[in-house]
Structures are given as structure tokens and as C-alpha cells.
Amino acid sequence: MLPIIIGLILAINLSVLIQYFRFIRRKEDILSFYNLKILEIIIVMGYPVLFLSIYDFNVPNDCCLSDSAFFSPVHRPTVYTLLILSTVAFIYSAFRQNLSPPLLELLINCGLITGLGLIIAVSLHVKEKIIYIPLTLLPLLLLYLFQLYRSYRFFEEEKETYYFDPEKWVVKAGFRLLNLPVWGKYPLLMILCLPLLLLFTGFMLLFGQKPDSLITAFTDTYGFGLSQLICTDDCPDQHFLCTIAAKGHKEVVKPVRNGARRGYLITVNRQLLIANAFEELMEEKVPYIHKPVRIIYNKIGGNSLKLYRIIGNRWISDLIYFMMKPLEYFFWITLSLTVKKPENKIASQYILYNDKAKIIA
Fold first, then answer.
1. CA-based, 20 to 30 A from 106: which of 25, 259, 320, 358?
2. Where exactly are the structural domains of the chain?
3. Cα(216)–Cα(226) distance, integer angstroms
4. What's the rounded Cα separation, in Å, for the pair 181 and 171?
5. Three-state DSSP class for residue 268
6. pLDDT tens series, the chain, 361 aa
7. Could you tell me which residues come within 8 angstroms of residue 76 by beta carbon, excluding any fewer than 6 positions away?
8. What dihedral angle (degrees, nearest 10) is formed by the CA atoms of 195, 199, 202, 204?
9. In 3-state terms, what secondary structure has residue 269?
10. Do strands 264-269 and 255-261 pair parallel, antiparallel, or not at all (unpaired)?
11. C-alpha distance from residue 73 to each of 5, 12, 42, 324, 351 (Å)
């Protein structure tokens, strides 16, 4: 399923790049109006939803997790709301047929500029820049730049026939700002975004957010580009699906030995060793696939762990052990086909580093 999703994203991105170069050279759209708009909506709405559903939504901000929350859960409503407003500005600008009143035109441009700022901030914050920037963030950046240029060209084409009440000084000032050259217009629009962001921040205070939530949503996280929090906890072992299975009845799950994980002693069985060896193989060979798979596994395993703690029954572990059997066979076959000494790799899991090096060798 994941290769299909990546293939679709690459196909969409290729269409955007073709559109971009055609647009720059000939100033015309290569696709029909509605096909182009559907493509834009898929990217502008679909990419953020897909990214956040995997890396942030319902993900805890826990330094002991290998995949902690992308945004601070306390402050993420501010980022989500700003993202929605920027998306609304983009969609309105993309589908409109007539020039908007000057003040609304200013708000649309500020919304697009804010969207660009969010994309840049996320680009700085994301870990695997070589994967996610060209795959998702660069197409978003290009589309917002497209829309800003289209908005500028739209205004230039209709400003001569556009009527506004010159006696309303606010409307007149807005029109004059929109009529400035590019080198003066957009720097002033960026400055204008600041008081609008202050008003937005004041509005979000009504919903329990803080004045600095837009900043701390990035900084109050662990392990990302703009993260400022440092993990000082002694992280206990986190028993997920296979580890829970190792806690079942011994005659069923067949524990083989004790193991060491993050300085803690755990009980391991062959199923757990094979699963961890397979994950290690994925991390080494296909890290861009390992990341989302691990996050999904964390969510499933975390829910299973909560269930196990509530019931506290060995039969639950036995059930999970049998449910994992098909995957165990798949992991073992993959290891046998791709690793020179698969049993050595399996045996080297959850032991001290020096001992592991000896077994692999």
C-alpha cells in the first residue's frame, strides 16, 4: 500500500513540476481549469492531512518514544487553525473569477504568505529533509508561489476597470498597496501579516492557547529540527505487540532468554527477536519506509499495551502471539532472502553492543 501512495504522490508532483515550468515559460496552464484545480486541492489539502495523520495527530509528545509528536499537543490547535485559514485563502484565490475588494484581496495575500511561512517552518522542523521536502513540501511551496503570482497577475489585468469608493481611506490605502511594484508590495504585505497574526493570537487565547503557541508548537517537542526540549527521563522499556506476547504462557510463547533494552531487563522470545531484526533491516535498507511503518506500529502497539495493562491476563499475550505468527513468518523469509547470516542477526537482538558485534561477525 505504501509504495502505491508514494507512486501517486510522485505522479502528482511530476504534474505540478510540468505545470510550473509551462506556467513560467508561456504564462498559461497546461491542464484544463477544473483538472488543475482538483490537482491543486489534492496537494494543498491532502498532503498536510496525510502528513499530520501519520506524524502528529494523536501522537504523544514523549521523549521516550522513537517517534514523538511533530507539534506540541498543547499548542498544535494554533498551528492547525492557521493551516486551515491558509488553505481557505488558497482555495478561494484559486477558484475566484473576479477581483475581490481591496481589503479582502489583502487578506487573501496575507493568507497565502502565512501558508508559505508555515511550509518553510515545517521544512526546518522535519527530520528526513531529503525525503519529505521534495516529496511533499516542495510541491506545496510551488503551489503557494503560483497562487501569489496568479493573484498579482489577476490584479494587474483588472485594476484599470476596478471600481472602489475613493472617499473610504482604508479601501483607498489597500488599493494603493496592491498597486505597488512587486519589490515593494510583498515586503509590505509581510509586515502587514504581523498585526493580523497578533489578532489571530488574541482570538486563540479564547480557546486556551498562549501568546507564544505558534512558536512553542515547534520548540516544545523532542528530536526535530526546531525542538528545544531535552529528554532527561530514564525511559523504561516499552512493551509493544511482540513484547507483550513474550509475557504469555511459557509453553505457548516459548521465551528463549533475557534481553537488554535501554538498560532494562526484558524477556524475549524468538518472535520478538525476528520482528526486531526485521525492523533493524528496514531501518538500514529503506529508512524512508521504516519511519511511517514504525509510527503506525507504535499506535497499534500502544493501544494493545493499554488493553494489556487494564486486563492483565496472560491469555491476551497468547492471543497476540498467534495473531503475529503470519508476520513472523514473513519477517523470517525476508531476512533469509536478504541477509547473509540471518540467524546471527536474529540472535544479536536485545543484547549488549559488544556481544552483538561478536555475534554478527
1. 25
2. 2-219, 241-360
3. 10
4. 18
5. strand
6. 445 555 556 666 666 666 656 655 555 554 555 666 777 888 888 888 888 887 888 777 877 666 678 899 999 999 999 999 999 999 988 888 777 777 888 888 899 999 999 999 998 888 765 466 666 777 888 888 888 888 888 777 776 766 556 666 666 777 777 777 777 778 888 888 888 899 999 999 999 899 999 999 999 988 888 888 876 554 544 546 556 666 678 888 888 887 776 655 677 888 888 988 888 888 888 877 777 777 776 666 555 555 554 444 677 778 888 888 998 999 999 999 988 888 888 888 887 555 554 445 4
7. 56, 69, 217
8. -120
9. strand
10. antiparallel
11. 27, 31, 26, 32, 35
First to last CA, the chain: 35
Closest CA to 293 of 321, 326, 266, 327: 327
3-state secondary structure of 127: coil
The three cell numbers of residue 86 are 491558509
Closest CA to 122 of 198, 200, 225: 225
Distant-in-sequence, close-in-space partners of 42: CB < 8 Å, separation ≥ 6: 12
User: Cell 493501544 identifies what position?
Assistant: 303
